[in-house]
Amino acid sequence: MNLPEFERVIYKRNPLVEVVCQLRFPPILKISHQEPVEFQDTIRFKYPLFETTRAQLPSEISQVVQQLGLPLQSDVAYNFKSEDQRWSLSLNKDFIALTTSSYEHYEQFKQRLEEALGIFEAIYKPSFYTRIGLRYQDLIIRSKLGIEDKNWSELIAEHIASELYEANFSSSIQTIVKSLVLKTEIGQINLNHGLVNVKEAQGSSDEIAYLFDADFYTEQKIEGNKDVWNVLNQFNQSAGRLFRWSITDTLHNAMQPQSVESVSVQA
Fold it and tell me: Which domain of life is it from (predicted)?
């Protein structure tokens, strides 16, 4: 995949609604058989809120298990959240994940993840990682950007959604769901995008928005902290290029891009 290069910017009107990084590893039974007391004790000042969840079995499997009179068993996941609940660490026997709804820039996210991974690796010593994924979800809401008067064809690149450029029926389109699967040198990108209905505030009417959901991942065997960051740094760079390639200059400027040098970014 050869995307054009663009200057890296940080949007003052940030369209990101969620960013998730998940690292999978060969199962560590210690995690599912013991509560992660040491892990929590080390991270609890940043992530003081705690809860457990269990993965839901598919309904057809659940029915068979119940008919046989067997106990329903599913993997437990431990979730640690920041006080404002904008950051969340999840841990179970075969993955660790960091999720945020308050993404500002990559360096901020990387610092949080580096701290969590360092603690996790010191305690649990995973053999290696079997899958690394980095997912960005951007939601373009025209009313938030003050561009309600702009057509989607003025905001979304034609090579991404040519339907928006069809004069005969573009104004009638209420939803679009499109999927692209792109290969990269180290993995794959699943890009789902299109028009969706959103409700911003209670009691307000629905608004049509444009969603970009880009999931970057590799299933190559990854060993060591350095190799992890080689992969994630490439994913982050590709994510910026892919998003910028997918939008027009009009939308880019409406989000008020700022050069990295003009924003205080600390690793």
Answer: Bacteria
- pLDDT per position as a tens digit, 240-262: 999 999 999 999 999 999 988 76
At 33, which amino acid appears? H
The rounded distance, in Å, linking the Cα atoms of 42 and 44 is: 6
Give the Cα separation of 16 and 81 in Å (integer): 19
Would you say 211 and 142 are in contact if contact means Cβ atoms under 8 Å apart? no
Cut 0.90: pTM above it: no
Q: Cβ contacts of residue 196 below 8 Å, gap of 6+?
A: 139, 175, 208, 209, 210, 211
Q: Say how many Å lie between the first and final Cα of the chain, rounded.
A: 28
